[in-house]
Amino acid sequence: MTAAVALAEGSGAARPERRPFEPGSRMWEDTGLITFSLTAGSAFLLQTMEPSIAAVVDEHSSFRTDALGRAARSIASVMMWIYGGEEALAEADRLRKMHATLNSTDAHGVKHRALSSGPWAWVLHTAVFAFTEGNKYFSSDKLTEAEKESYYQEVVQLMRNFSVPPKEIPATYAEWLPWFEDQIENHLVPTNVAQDYLKVIRNIAPPRQIPSALHPVWRVATQPIGRLQYFCTVGTTPGSVRDRLGLEWTANDERALRFLGWAIGRTVPKLPERIRYFPIAYEARRLERDRARLRKMITLRPI
User: Fold this and answer.
1) Nearest-CA neighbor of 176 among 144, 149, 136, 137?
2) Model confidence over 82-107: pLDDT tens digits?
3) What pTM was computed for the model?
């Protein structure tokens, strides 16, 4: 436990305020980018190796039978966390209420709760890893240590919005790094859920509404997308985790990923904003510009 967290817990101080994110934050600028999906895979993979999350996902998640629907719902929810305004807090509450009943007992008789503080926090901790890893590979504007700290503090605020207990939150990014490494090395385990997830993203199952006669066409059309998602997921996963899961990653793979990231990092910023951002993020950003223009006209009105 960090000194800052210990002090906060021992002082009897009220838990810091929940508040939605606003324009100007790093979350607002970066979370809604389409490149979010390139490292979301490794974040979810790390989540499926946390024992309690794996047990609950194994029993309750639809990722095996409705991969695209599950992914779409997850991305839309994440966009709400950042761009939903006051509704962002309502979305966090909705998720907590939904997960309150998602419990499971594994093959060894161990009981797992989705809302146990450690697993609940781990989902958001993987966002820190995904963001910094995404910046490392897929951005031409590399983060400074100060920017990593600033982003981490925004994630801390996100954890507050999700009612994560302070005991689960290292005080600074510098303290988070060794904490995260310890979690990777000593808490995560290979699971069947992780292996199934890798299979699912590599071979994207057709949605239920597509007739079976068109399934071969679907598989051919989505094969490049699946291969790309799998490649980026494996490549942005920590090496020790790849080893535990038996995933191959060569020096040539690393060079290919870095070249792909170099191309993406220089292409995406040039795309129109409507294409560069997911729909909820784009509409939120457009609405804020409209509000700014209205505020300017109100300020300049003749009196």
Assistant:
1) 149
2) 999 999 999 999 999 999 999 998 88
3) 0.89
